[in-house]
Design brief:
The structure holds two protein chains of two kinds.
Chain A lengths: L1 H10 L2 H19 L18 E8 L2 E3 L2 E4 L5 E5 L9 E4 L4 E4 L6 E4 L5 E7 L5 E6 L1
Parallel strand pairs in A: 1-4, 3-9
Antiparallel strand pairs in A: 1-2, 4-7, 5-6, 5-8, 8-9
Chain B lengths: L1 H9 L10 H22 L7 H29 L4 H48 L4 H25 L4 H27 L11 H20 L3 H4 L1
Classes of the chains: A alpha+beta, B mainly alpha.
Chain lengths: ~130, ~230
């Protein structure tokens, strides 16, 4: 008994530090395991007709700011000339899209391979909208 | 030499308050993870994609509070500081305690709510810790909390379409180093003085509980969490 107490005192805070590390590793594995650290999800190529969408600008945001597209079918997004400044730096994080569309002829093209709602935005997140893949 | 002594104290081989900091971190983590576990099994597990959306940020905010709170324990133990130290204490605590919550709430709820929340936590903690040297420390805590909260939220929002999560890890890592340096600075300044009070762990556990509960609630059910989550 005395030896046990002596050993614990000698260990100082080592035991507590081991406990803290175990807690952080355990919690981390549970909470972080399914997270996508880089934020870029998928690529992939689909087939079929290209779905073309042109976005404008209204009330300091993209308009329309909800777009519906079909899954596994290429999507091409243009920004018309009403879209100005940093709003022309267009991103869809979940599909790894980040491109500066200099003119209204420039576009981003990708093929959504999963259904759901995804956020599109300018690079600073000031203009936002939702891409619904059905 | 004194750093070596400081690490010895941290490891619990001395008799000063620094030996209690490790225990403070452990209690904070236990309370926060315990609270999260209860909330998860009662409510959050029914939210689709809960862990991929919020798990990472919740993990980092729990760690953040665990590294911020020991400085409160240390400062409360010594009680009074000279103005120069007190200002540094108020500034560091306010800045980091504002920046980290601001960053993680900003990442899940946008600039406005991240800024407001970060400023609230930063100013509260900065003033609480800064009052150890009187009005100058309080002022420093106020200003640093205000600035840290806004900056944290702003940084997160600007990173949303970039490597936000990796930035979160880097920001947390740097903040942890700064807070550890603050612990050392307090030890260095006060190592000749007699420690005034041991205090208890209830305040730390209570603060961890309240801060974690409010932050997790805000991340998941905040006004703009649907858009940013």
């Amino acid at each position: 008994m005395d030896q046990g107490v002596f050993y614990l005192v000698k260990m100082g805070n080592k035991l507590l530090i081991i406990l803290i590390v175990a807690l952080i590793v355990g919690g981390g594995v549970f909470l972080v395991k399914d997270s996508n650290l880089t934020g870029n999800a998928i690529g992939g190529s689909g087939s079929g007709k290209v779905q073309e969408v042109t976005l404008g600008m209204k009330n300091y945001n993209y308009y329309p700011n909800t777009i519906k597209v079909k899954v596994n079918q290429p999507v091409r997004i243009y920004l018309d000339k009403s879209v100005v400044g940093c709003y022309r730096s267009f991103t869809i994080r979940d599909f790894g899209i980040a491109k500066y569309l200099q003119s209204e002829k420039d576009y981003v093209e990708f093929t959504p391979t999963k259904t759901g709602s995804f956020r599109f935005a300018c690079s600073m997140g000031m203009g936002t909208g939702t891409l619904i893949v059905e | 030499m004194s750093f070596k002594q400081f690490t010895k104290e941290i490891m619990g081989k001395g008799r000063r308050v620094e030996g209690e900091l490790v225990k403070t971190i452990l209690y904070s983590l236990l309370v926060s993870f315990g609270l999260f576990a209860i909330l998860y099994f009662m409510k959050f597990r029914y939210i689709p994609d809960f862990i991929p959306k919020y798990g990472f940020f919740i993990f980092l905010i729990i760690l953040s509070y665990a590294v911020v709170l020991p400085s409160i324990k240390q400062v409360r133990a010594y009680g009074n500081f000279v103005c120069m130290s007190g200002m540094m204490i108020g500034m560091t605590t306010g800045m980091i305690a504002g920046f980290l919550p601001g960053f993680f709430i900003g990442a899940t709820n946008g600039m406005f709510w991240g800024g407001v929340f970060g400023m609230g936590v930063g100013i509260f903690m900065g003033v609480w810790n800064g009052k150890c040297c009187g009005i100058m420390g309080i002022m420093e805590g106020l200003m640093a909390g205000f600035m840290g909260g806004l900056m944290g939220a702003m940084t997160a929002v600007m990173m949303i379409n970039d490597n936000l999560r990796i930035a979160g890890v880097i920001v947390f890592g740097i903040s942890a180093v700064i807070l550890f340096s603050l612990n050392y600075m307090i030890y260095f300044e006060m190592k000749e003085s007699r420690k005034e009070s041991r205090g208890d762990y209830f305040t730390i556990a209570f603060m961890s509980f309240i801060l974690s509960a409010i932050t997790i609630w805000f991340m998941v059910y905040g006004p703009r969490s649907i858009l940013f989550g």
